[in-house]
Specification:
Blueprint: E1 22-26, E2 52-53, E3 58-59, H1 60-64, H2 70-74, E4 80-84, H3 86-89, H4 98-110, E5 132-134, H5 143-147, E6 157-160, E7 181-184, E8 188-190, H6 200-213, E9 216-220, E10 235-240, E11 256-260, H7 265-275, E12 280-286, H8 291-301, E13 305-309, H9 325-338, E14 346-350, H10 358-364, E15 369-372, H11 374-379, H12 403-428, E16 443-445, H13 446-458
Parallel strand pairs: 8-9, 8-15, 9-10, 10-11, 11-12, 12-13, 13-14, 14-15
Antiparallel strand pairs: 1-4, 2-3, 5-16, 6-7
Helix pairs in contact: 4-12, 6-12, 8-9
The structure holds iron/sulfur cluster (SF4) (2 copies).
One iron/sulfur cluster (SF4) binds next to helix 2.
Length: 462
């Protein structure tokens, strides 16, 4: 029996005390000095392990407290109270919200699935991926067997061009040559980072994590260096198609390459395929007004992989009312289905994939695979403050991260994402992630429900 894919997490504590959601205010003047102080009875030893970080003026209680309110409720003089930490509310931006950042921090530290313990208390629906829900109707045995390892749920996919039918030569013999494929055990690639206080150590930490979990990582041409030689099998160089030299050293020893879309991209892909027939060539297409037409043209011409890139908040690159990545993806996937060429090409999507649940949602909308970026940086403790984009210092000195520590945090993050993908697939009753792609019938979309339920009465939402 083939070995089952598994990611092993090991705790990897943050180097800086993370910004916690809520702080505890302690009015010590009224304290009765009870011998059995509620602080000593904290189930999570939050007060016992309390520490301060002078560099960031952070108190570990804010991050470690599980908000059980035991100490607050049981203090006889009520000297303790909780309050939202204003620093927490300032984290990130309108899309990369504090909850998204803190969830990814937790996952990178522990490799576990975050559990609130108090049920979901958020809104029923929201923008972006929050306006779709996956089908959980199969969340019963025997699909739970897959989640607990008694049956195998496969998360492996193949990157490359697939044949959709048998072909025969002029003599009537079957053509046995099949295009090259790169198999990855998770439908996740490590994308180029949109910003960040990046360094050689950050790239090596990502590459080492990719090696450990058998993933693939995109590498900008200018970042190639001898230290990455050992990771070649896990690298996807991203190269401009214009002026590309197929003999360049960056193409030696890699299994897959990505060309940045331009008028020359398809010509460049053919040149690379002529020189390296076993290489999988992807084309990086920005999600702009032309994306659908470009994707259809490339797929019809014979492209193996098309990487659709939205901005880091998941919006398409158009000035007027940009659509969210899931809507663009559904549109492009649907067009490929209509043109009867969807199964032949691999679609990778990136931009705005921020949480584990976004991965199966992106697959349902039509992607074969997602490339993630900021979650990796957040895994390395990034606060999405964007100071680095203005040339200012990084509050968590990301560039100084040790390779072994950084790679373990990324491995942990992927362990958590992988576990959650299996959870969703188990609940949907799907045992092969390749079957999740385009399964829109196994999801509900708020826009569709609203239109079908209220559209006839109230018309279309403006
Ligand atoms: S609220 Fe609960 S977890 Fe937080 S410090 Fe008090 S007892 Fe500990
Ligand atoms: S923490 Fe801020 S400065 Fe550091 S990498 Fe992240 S966004 Fe850039």
């Amino acid at each position: 029996m083939p070995k089952r894919y598994h990611i092993t997490a090991k705790p990897a504590a943050p180097r800086f005390i993370p910004v916690g959601r809520s702080g505890i205010i302690d009015f010590e003047e009224d304290c009765l000095k009870c011998t059995t102080c509620v602080k000593k009875r904290c189930l999570y030893d939050v007060y016992k392990n309390r520490s301060y970080d002078a560099r960031t003026m952070a108190d570990s209680i804010d991050y470690q407290c599980k908000n059980c309110f035991s100490c607050i409720q049981n203090c006889p003089r009520g000297v303790l109270s909780k309050t939202i930490n204003p620093e927490y509310l300032k984290l990130g931006d309108a899309y990369w919200k504090p909850e998204i950042i803190s969830i990814n921090w937790f996952q990178a530290e522990t490799g576990r699935i975050p559990v609130s313990g108090a049920g979901y208390r958020g809104p029923f629906s929201g923008p972006g991926f929050d306006s779709m829900w996956t089908d959980m109707s199969e969340i019963v045995r025997p699909t739970r067997d897959g989640i607990h390892g008694r049956e195998y749920i496969s998360t492996a996919i193949d990157l490359g061009r697939k044949k959709s039918r048998l072909e025969f030569d002029a003599a009537g013999n079957p053509v046995l040559e099949v295009p090259p494929l790169v198999e990855v055990p998770l439908p996740i690639l490590f994308n180029l980072l949109p910003f960040g206080n990046l360094s050689r150590n950050v790239r090596l930490a990502m590459a080492e994590a990719a090696r450990q979990i058998d993933a693939m990582m995109y590498l900008a041409e200018q970042d190639d260096e001898p230290a990455l030689e050992a990771y070649k099998a896990h690298l996807i160089p991203v190269v401009a198609a214009n002026g590309m030299d197929p003999s360049a050293a960056i193409f030696q020893g890699v299994k897959m390459v990505e060309l940045i879309y331009s008028d020359q991209a398809w010509h460049g892909a053919l040149k690379l395929k002529a020189k390296y027939p076993g290489l999988v060539v992807s084309i990086r297409v920005p999600m702009d007004a032309e994306a659908k037409a470009v994707t259809l043209k490339l797929a019809a011409a014979g492209a193996e992989v098309i990487h659709l890139v939205a901005d880091f908040q998941g919006n398409e690159f158009v000035a007027d009312r940009p659509r969210f990545v899931k809507d663009v993806l559904r549109d492009i996937h649907g067009s490929l289905v209509t043109a009867s060429i969807r199964d032949e090409v691999t679609l990778v999507v990136s931009g705005g994939i921020a949480l584990p649940e976004h991965l199966p949602k992106a697959l349902i909308c039509g992607a074969d695979c997602a490339a993630i970026d900021l979650p990796l940086l957040i895994g390395l403790e990034c606060r999405v403050c964007k100071r680095c984009t203005h040339g200012k210092s990084c509050p968590v000195e990301i560039d100084q991260v040790e390779v072994s520590h950084g790679s373990q945090r990324i491995v942990n993050l992927m362990c958590s994402w992988w576990s959650q993908l299996i959870e969703v697939m188990g609940a949907m009753g799907i045992r092969d992630v390749r079957r999740v792609r385009g399964e829109a019938g196994r999801a509900m979309f708020f826009e569709d429900l609203e239109r079908e339920t209220f559209g006839a009465m109230f018309g279309t939402r403006k």
